Amino acid sequence: MIDLTLASGLPIALGDDLKLVFSDPLPDVAPAVRKDTDMMDVWLSPDKAEGREIYYMYRDVRLPEHEELIRESGLRYDVTIILPGRVGHEFIKTAGHYHPAKPGSKTTYPEVYEVLYGVAHYLLQRADASSGDIVDAVLIEAEAGDKVIIPPMYGHITMNPSSEPLVMSNWVAADFASEYGMIKRHRGGAYFEIDETAGASRLIPNKRHEGVAPLRGLDPRDLPTLALMSGYPMYQAFVDSPDKFDWLVQPEQFEQELAFVIGR
Questions:
Q1: What is the CA radius of gyration of the chain?
Q2: DSSP state for residue 221 in the 8-state scheme
Q3: How far apart are CA 202 and CA 173, in angstroms?
Q4: Whether pLDDT at 263 is above 70
Q5: Cα 49 off chain centre by
Q6: What are phi and psi of 241, to 5 degrees?
Q7: How confident is the model at residue 218 (pLDDT cuts 50, 70, 90)?
């Protein structure tokens, strides 16, 4: 069992079965389970899917004493576990999605992730509204303690490129549904990450898109902090200063700060 209390600010651990273990006073949360066969539309080699469980999503995790505070903020705190492994040569990943625009605004909702254990590769992509071409593609490699912001207008996919489980948490606005259609229509994201040789990986463009921008890297340490201090769990940061997370529910008021995330 791997204790995640210090990393997350909550009494949780990664059990030997690679699922979360909750300790008092944190209520148990049943995970939504994703199998590789649930994602047949987005794999490079869907015929290699075998019906394996590949990730677990624990939504709306919170201590009872913070329930009202979190509800009033309009946010939700989740924890996701992505198992190690491959489907064919492709590393296990999330299905990927975009976020809708905030009602009354043209700005889509952002999101923020924190790696609690393992290594994450976050693929961010921005599509042209008319053609569907990917006009920007960004890869962020994040390790335990790193925070990664998904800015407005970007879809995202998370890959686990290591032999260890990946555990990550996120804060996101609670009142919207993610949009999976665009990534499904193109049968995957802008790039697929494949295992080439032992300890090495390669990202190859998805040719099912007519146009895909060259992939560029971004260091999570170059992102704006927006109350996301290094070594300070996001859950505790929110409890201490919930107003500093207003940008997640009012992105139209923070466009300049959020545009800096991608250097645009």
A1: 18
A2: G
A3: 33
A4: no
A5: 22
A6: -145, 70
A7: confident
